[in-house]
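Much of what follows relies on a compact textual record of a protein's fold. A record is reproduced here so that you can trace the correspondence yourselves:
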Amino acid sequence: MRHIFFIPFLLFTLLSVGINSTPQVLRACMNFTDSVVTVKWKAPTDVCGSFSQYSIYGSREGAAFLKLDDIPNIAVTEYPHKLSDLNTTWEYYITVDFRCDGATGVSDTVSIDLTLPNTIQLDSLSYELSTQKIIAGWPKNPSTDTKNYVVYDGTTGNGDSIGMTIDTHYIVTDARQGRYRVRISSTDSCNLFSLLSIPHRAAFLRSSIDTCLQEISLNWDLYSGWSSIDSQSLFVSKDKGITFYKDTTFSGISKTLVFNKFTLGDTLRFYIRSYTRNGKVSSSSNTTQIETRAFVVPDYVYLTLATVYDEVSNVTATPSIAWQTDNIQDVSSFSILSGTELSNLLPIKDQSIVSNQLDYIYDDLPKDAKTRSYFYKVIALDQCGDSLRSSDINNTIHLTIEPQIVHNEYINWDMGVMHYALQKHNGSTWNTLFTQLDPIQGIDFTDSSGCYQIAASEVVNRFNSASTSYSNIVCQTTPLTFSIATAINTRSDNNRFIVLGQGIDHAKSHYTIFNRWGEKITDNRTDVPWYADYKGQLVLPGSYVYVASIVGLLGQKKTTKGIINVIR
């Protein structure tokens, strides 16, 4: 049967003849490519310096030995013998002749070396912690003629050779980057290769973090190549330290783990160590790093204002709030809480942040601020829905006239309220009647028709600003009644024309006076008197016509006309 693969070494014993050392035939190595057998020996000691020649003898298929050649050079220690038929067996020996005493040394007989080195298995593949290079390790081959170890990428088939070494370890990733199956083989001095080992592959670890749950999920590919994995351990290093500690040990089939022994802001490195042969052999996976970060918390969430948007003609009013903050990079949204009791506020709205925007406004349209006061609070939430920072609780101002003025205190401005102002609407603008430090109480509005509101002014706060909070608007009205004088005596106390009454909206009411020829003499608001003058001069005595258009504070409209008699 033709042998075409690996040939192991054989060792042979020296013979000594006379005073001269005989040659030691080391082995006969076959090259199956060119059918040449190389016979190798160790040169003898030529004590008397009378070496004559080597003689090479060979025997085919157990036949008698025939001389193949003579070699007259003592320095030659190899002889190539070309075979005509690979399917034959040969044996060889050599002799050495010396002229000084005619002695002949004869070596042992050797056969062609076809014995492969022993097949050995990898102990482990392991990631080196500091460099993260993959290192293969194996036991020493017990074959005495072991020359080298060859390392292979065993991903497919027998794989490609990636390196050769005389050591029992090899840095795999220096030869070829990547994570792949690794196999080894041994060679002897005849360049015969042992059978390939079982392929091994190191465990490979991955990690991810759920910041909201504050959990790090670890998962990995199990070590492959051992007959079994006895156990595995998780090793952890914190804050970029070089020292790892064993955190926990688990079964050899586990491939996932949840780690939660950290606080946001820690930097953690992990690796898995696998064990076999009762813990005598181990392998480290790659390391993986999770760099956590604590959420950036705003320094403040400040409710700058809780106010009421109202108009004199409105039947409902809208409460509104405004707030400001900083450091919003980890703020996902604002939760707005509201209620009618300070101690019982409920979420009513989640408002998303706007990139780079630090000031916000929310109009609470579903609520009616004409009926009561409302409390508000704003909470900055992170992406997990957890609170980062909360504002103080502020409230809108609610005004009633019962018939005395009553309104609640505004709370929790940074530096407090500078003063409260009672304001009355004059038809187009608001006029401040008076201000005071404390909430305004006890003014009787029984006979004070008109529309009123409270304006609370803030003391300049730490942000060098101040706001004004307005209450709802309350209008005190009486039924529309009026009277008009029908005679004017320019020389008496009754020297003017004016519309008197209650419930009159003078801003919307007016009168016009005409002389007997229909010429308009004056056109005034109803609360502005006419002193019987025209162009700076008193008019002539006589009868004049007036037309008055009167609007009540409740919206009533009346038009009246009549005669005014002017007397001198």
The chain has five domains: 16-113, 124-188, 204-291, 301-475, 481-567.
